[in-house]
Amino acid sequence: MKRFLQAIGLLMLAERIWKYSMVTRFFRRSAPSSTASPTLVSIIQPVLSGDPTMASCLERSLQLKSSYLLEYIWLTDRDDAAGQDICQNLMARYPNRPVQMISLPPPVEGQNPKTVKLIAGAKVARGEILCVLDDDTMLPDHGLELCLPYLAKPGVGLAFGLPYYVNYSNMWSSMVSAFVNSNSLLTYIPYTILTQPFTVNGMFYAIRRQVLTEVGGFEAIEHMFADDFAIAQLMRSHGYRLAQSPLCHGISTQVKGPRHYLSLIQRWFVLPRESLLRHVSRRERLITYALGLLPALYPLLLIITLLLRPSKAKLGYTLLYFGGNFAIFAYFNKRYLQKATPWRKAWWVPVMQIIFPLQLLVALFSPQRINWRGNIVQVERGGNFHYVSRRGKEQAASY
């Protein structure tokens, strides 16, 4: 057993070093050049009120600097008066920005509320390139110039970015942000060295209108709840590749309390369990488990073994492992993530490494029912879903 644990320990250190080297190599790659003249880009943003930072995120989109010509399409719910007010106020403050606001009725049973908005947005968009951008996501100035040239690469149907979180306004938001910022690059980039990307980060992605039309439009995925994985599978089923670009973009989600926090974490893991892992190949599933699940559980195992049978050697290794992880995080935070995590909040990083495995285990065995901004949804095996209850005033207030 002792030799087995030592072997696992060496393997986990090697895994950290390898992932670190893959991330740095990824960002050193030459970006594809684009000789195309600036074209119209349609930024489609489904809007749903509930997060107090949503207005600032939408405003940041209007302030985006780019060599491309931009138009904005905001899709709201007819019964979301707060969301409509936010949009109208911003449109009045930025009259020179081309913005359309469209209000839609509630989706019918079996329709993804976000995808329904994307369908409506794509119908009125005039751009050659469509960018799907969540209402809590902020692109950096000239970020489109980092991403959109990937669409010109042979066989690429969709290009997407790398998320990090910026909200440290309270304990629960800090926990989420520290977790994402210490894991996102190590999760999303290294596996693409071993295989082509098989899913996307749905907070932001770009697609050519011609390609979207060819694959059947957003209508082809309106009955799948995990829209990010669904659009990825749609692209791949038509022979298109997914391109991971070096664009890093911020996300602001204010987590209101323990209930909201647990709901968010559960959604993050129930959806991949019921959609992605049930559709990818055996090789892709193995890569996911080897590079994602096992390393995620290891910090908890390390702490448990240290507490059960403490020794100086185990303590030294534990400090080395967590110290190495923190050093990687600190470098990535400064070099790639715009110092999104302030130093006074950085202590959450090792704490989340220990807490996260417990959350992961709970989520893996949790019911397939999730809360999405007040909509209670039962996710079915394979990725379809049905509404248990719809978002209402009481739900929205308690979420």
Note the main attributes of this structure:
single chain, 399 residues, alpha/beta, Spore Coat Polysaccharide Biosynthesis Protein SpsA, Chain A, 2 domains, 8-stranded mixed sheet, 3-stranded antiparallel sheet, globular, disordered C terminus
Question: How is the secondary structure organized here?
Answer:
Layout: H1 2-28, E1 40-46, H2 54-62, E2 69-77, H3 81-93, E3 99-104, H4 113-124, E4 129-133, E5 137-138, H5 143-147, E6 156-165, H6 171-188, H7 191-194, E7 204-208, H8 209-214, H9 227-237, E8 241-251, H10 258-274, H11 282-308, H12 312-335, H13 348-364, E9 369-372, E10 375-379, E11 385-389, H14 393-398
Parallel strand pairs: 1-2, 1-4, 2-3, 6-8
Antiparallel strand pairs: 4-7, 5-8, 6-7, 9-10, 10-11
Molecular structure report:
This protein has 399 residues and is an alpha/beta fold. The chain has two domains: 2-15 and 282-398, no CATH class; 39-256, Spore Coat Polysaccharide Biosynthesis Protein SpsA, Chain A (Alpha-Beta Complex). Helices cover 49% and strands 17% of the residues. The chain is built from 14 helices and eleven strands. It has helices spanning 2-28, 54-62, 81-93, 113-124, 143-147, 171-188, 191-194, 209-214, 227-237, 258-274, 282-308, 312-335, 348-364, 393-398, and strands spanning 40-46, 69-77, 99-104, 129-133, 137-138, 156-165, 204-208, 241-251, 369-372, 375-379, 385-389. The strands form two sheets. It has an eight-stranded mixed beta sheet, sandwiched between helices. A three-stranded antiparallel beta sheet has the order 9-10-11. Helix 1 packs parallel to helix 12 (312-335). The longest helix has 27 residues, at 2-28. The radius of gyration is 21 Å and the shape is globular. The termini are far apart. It is found in: Membrane. This is Glycosyltransferase.
